[in-house]
Amino acid sequence: MDFIVELPESRGNTVILTVIDRFSKMGHYVPLRKLPSAAELVPIFITNVVRIHGIPLGIVSDRGTQFVSRFWRGFCKNVGIDLSFSSAYHPQTNGAAERANQNIEKYLRCFISERQDNWSDLLPWAEYALNSAVSEATGHSPFFTVYGFDPPVLPATFPDTTIPALDEHLASLTETWGRVKQALEDSSVVQKTKADRHRRPAPVYQVGDRVWLSSRNIKLLVPSMKLAPRYIGPYRILRRLNPVSYALALPPHIRIHNVFHVSLLKPLLCNRYTRARAPPPPVSVEGEEEFEVEAILDARISRGSYSTWLTGWATVQRIALGSRLLRSMLLGW
User: Fold this and answer.
1) What is the DSSP string of 202-265?
2) Where in the sequence of the chain do the CATH 3.30.420.10 domains occur?
3) What whole-number distance in Å separates Cα of residue 182 and Cα of residue 167?
4) In a 3-state reduction of DSSP, which class is residue 126?
5) 25-83: per-residue pLDDT in tens?
6) Do 268 and 210 meet the contact criterion of CB atoms below 8 Å apart?
């Protein structure tokens, strides 16, 4: 399940609810006036999904406020629906709905008017066309997989013919179901093989390990993201949800979901640039706590004035090294 939002108003509708069956690839696209709350989503779901197909065994969605709310969780728990959520910044987890969104947008883009205000009228025909098209994964159209026959391409009445026996119809459905299942498994293997050509084996982390977190999708409080660090942290791993998802112990000021795909993590490798121990304690100089300076690494003249640079450099290092010791050492040098 997913939403397509921020669409131009069409008959009062601005949102599309996308629901895709993972087995048959059949999709339902429901126009909505606005992004619904969790309480509003339940009757919409019952009318457009449960009424037609029954109660699903599980639902995969992103972490939108509607899907993670206590109301929606409580409803699904009571009717026996297993909820699964995509990990942070990894939409491939809900790839079926994401791909369906692209397909429906592509269809509407081809037939919509210049004012873009008639997409609600085109939506039923778009759903009809997509559910009648043969899926590359299954080898059949979603309509045929669910109902056992292909709908007519153009609206027409069925000719009066002899109706097959019930057992023959059930046998045909069983055979179709088996062929579709085998085609899905074969397609999944082929797709995984192609995807693995450009992938490296994911590292395995244990609870308590420290890892770096990619800042690609995190808005940092810096003037420019071009010069921002590519990874932040390191953060400790709290638990392993599955082979490719981990929960991190994030600081309170990072208010995002703490479950991330393994592709966004990088192991912490200790080297000469990694601080493996705490800094030494300060020393007392004339009743004040200051840090001893071990060595002066470098010095330079800025804009023809050495003293100006010296004062500024000493001020910057005041907390880390101690301004009084630093100034006396540099002036003596």
Assistant:
1) PPP--TT-EEEEE-TTS--SSS-GGGS-SEEEEEEEEEEEETTEEEE---TT--S-SEEEGGGE
2) 2-154+168-196
3) 23
4) helix
5) 889 999 999 999 989 999 999 999 999 888 999 998 888 888 889 999 999 999 999 98
6) yes
Q: Which residue has the tokens 């009743």?
A: 287
CATH 2.30.30 range(s) for the chain read 210-267
The structure tokens listed for 295 are: 């060595």
121-161: pLDDT as tens digits: 888 888 888 888 877 777 788 888 888 887 765 443 434 44
272 CB-near residues (< 8 Å, 6+ apart) = none
The CATH class that applies to domain 2-154+168-196 reads alpha beta
Cβ atoms < 10 Å from Cβ of 212: 18
d(CA 72, CA 257): 18
CB 152 within 8 A of CB 144: no
CA distance 131 to 322: 72
Task: Return the CATH class of domain 210-267.
Answer: mainly beta
Q: Report the alpha-carbon distance of residue 150 to residue 142 in Å, rounded.
A: 9
Q: Which phi and psi (to 5°) does residue 32 adopt?
A: -130, 150
b/e code 115-144 from CB counts within 10 Å (16+ = b): eeeebbebbeebbeebbeeebebbbbbbbb
Note the pTM of the prediction, 2 decimals. 0.53
Query: Residue with structure tokens 């001020």?
Result: 315
Single-letter amino acid, residue 129 = A
Cα 228 to Cα 240: distance, rounded to the nearest angstrom: 28
| Cα–Cα distance for residue pair 72/169, rounded to 1 Å | 38
